[in-house]
């Protein structure tokens, strides 16, 4: 397919964008000379910019979102029809698509039972934090307000979710932060701590969480918030033994387990949810990005019935319920889109495809690892893949962020969009992050690997 840039006034659009739009995660000074990139068309795995350039999108909308690909008319049609029928009413009342989607979602999440709607991953995690804090007051006399989060994990852009972020550069300049958020060590085996038991690292890493709990006081800690696979922090899967031990610790100390599935949820890792690979039974699960594949804004905070029941206790009928609202949690476009999104994943066997294509992709990337010493580690699950670049494999010294930027820039110039750890850490912004849509084919993976091959060859020439 080609895209005709004459289909719209591209110069006018680019000028208006440059003059009036404040872009996310962007330094705008360069736009004064080059103008911003404007994406105008998407179909399947590919997007086109205002100049007519075509790109293979290997990060699903740049932020791991468009799980079922671009141009899905069936989702757009469902949203249009629903908005004409009933576009919005606050979630103080129910609506048809929310009821239908909630049932379909819960059917994929044994042990979970209640869905709270909002409109972004940050907001979904805020709701979870508020649930934990209110339970602390309702059940524990104001104790157990502390929430543990993990080094390298990321949970959102608001002040509270940044307070729970294990990424220094994303937090930098936004403090002071909300109190009672406490960090626990990461579980990246490739970057194992110096004193770690490397023979049983998964259990050792989980036990470091227990040490923090004991130091803080178990009676002060309400929840542990973890990504099932650390995504933007470098695509880190916990080693064997980690998750069973985490589950034991949470039960032992009466701590709610909150799993942040904002990236991993809805098929990204080859199962409906990332935690389902590990036999974990969470109390709270949050999700956003892939829930509707970007066709409408929606996020969900899902809880067990036991958590929900705590807010039905009538000892304080005026104040004891969950006193929270999300304005656009009442928009029907989100659940209407999400319902069709799930049907597409089912009907096209996209969970299986994510597993198969991810395995193929990691195999091809390991071939590149044999070719280029700069590749220190290839890791991931399903279509969530990380490539950590190093100066020296023996010392694992990371490359500078500029090197990873150069690889990404070369890929972009050759029609492939990849991701990377972006201004997240002091010294570990050295991982290429890949999250192509679940509809990916072997040919797409081959194009992606070919672009990476060319880029790494160019960037490492003379190093």
UniProtKB/TrEMBL annotation:
PROSITE patterns to which the protein is assigned, alphabetical: AA_TRANSFER_CLASS_3
Any one Pfam family match given in the protein's UniProt record, by short name: Aminotran_3
Any one GO molecular function term: transaminase activity
CDD domains named in the record: OAT_like (cd00610)
Superkingdom per UniProt: Bacteria
Protein name, UniProt field: Taurine-pyruvate aminotransferase
Cofactor(s) listed in the protein's UniProt record: pyridoxal 5'-phosphate
Family from the record: Belongs to the class-III pyridoxal-phosphate-dependent aminotransferase family.
Leader sequence segment: none
Record flagged with keyword Transferase: yes
Keywords noted in UniProt: Aminotransferase, Pyridoxal phosphate, Pyruvate, Transferase
């Amino acid at each position: 397919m080609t895209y005709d840039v004459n289909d719209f006034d591209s110069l006018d659009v680019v000028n208006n964008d440059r003059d009036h739009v404040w872009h996310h995660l962007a330094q705008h000074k360069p736009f004064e000379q080059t103008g911003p990139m404007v994406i105008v068309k998407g179909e399947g795995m590919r997007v086109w910019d205002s100049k007519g350039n075509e790109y293979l999108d290997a990060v699903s909308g740049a932020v791991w979102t468009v799980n079922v690909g671009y141009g899905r008319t069936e989702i757009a049609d469902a949203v249009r029809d629903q908005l004409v029928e009933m576009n919005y009413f606050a979630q103080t009342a129910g609506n048809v698509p929310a009821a239908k989607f909630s049932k379909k979602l819960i059917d994929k999440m044994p042990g979970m039972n209640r869905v709270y709607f909002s409109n972004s991953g940050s907001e979904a995690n805020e709701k979870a934090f508020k649930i934990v804090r209110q339970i602390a007051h309702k059940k524990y006399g104001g104790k157990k307000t502390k929430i543990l989060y993990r080094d390298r994990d990321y949970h959102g852009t608001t002040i509270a979710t940044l307070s729970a972020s294990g990424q220094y550069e994303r937090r930098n300049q936004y403090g002071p932060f909300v109190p009672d958020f406490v960090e626990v060590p990461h579980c990246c085996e490739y970057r194992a701590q110096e004193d770690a038991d490397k023979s049983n690292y998964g259990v050792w890493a989980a036990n470091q969480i227990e040490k923090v709990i004991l130091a803080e006081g178990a009676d002060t800690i309400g929840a542990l918030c973890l990504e099932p696979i650390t995504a933007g922090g470098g695509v880190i899967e916990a080693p064997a033994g980690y998750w069973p031990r985490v589950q034991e610790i949470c039960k032992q100390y009466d701590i709610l387990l909150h799993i942040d599935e904002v990236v991993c949820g809805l098929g990204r890792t080859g199962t409906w949810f990332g935690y389902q690979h590990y036999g974990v039974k969470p109390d709270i699960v949050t999700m956003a990005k892939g829930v509707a594949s970007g066709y409408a804004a929606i996020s969900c905070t899902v809880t067990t019935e036991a958590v929900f029941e705590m807010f039905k206790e009538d000892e304080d009928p005026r104040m004891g319920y969950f006193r929270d609202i999300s304005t656009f949690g009442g928009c029907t476009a989100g659940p209407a889109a999400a319902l069709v999104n799930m049907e597409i994943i089912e009907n096209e066997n996209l969970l299986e495809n994510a597993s198969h294509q991810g395995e193929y992709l990691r195999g091809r990337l390991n071939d590149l690892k044999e070719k280029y010493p700069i590749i220190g580690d290839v890791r991931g699950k399903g279509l969530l893949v990380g490539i950590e670049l190093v100066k020296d494999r023996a010392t694992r010294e990371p490359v500078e962020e500029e090197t990873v930027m150069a690889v990404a820039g070369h890929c972009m110039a050759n029609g492939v969009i990849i991701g990377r750890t972006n201004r997240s850490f002091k010294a570990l912004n050295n991982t290429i992050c890949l999250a192509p849509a679940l509809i990916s084919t072997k040919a797409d993976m081959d194009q992606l690997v070919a672009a990476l091959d060319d880029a790494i060859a160019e960037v490492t020439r003379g190093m």
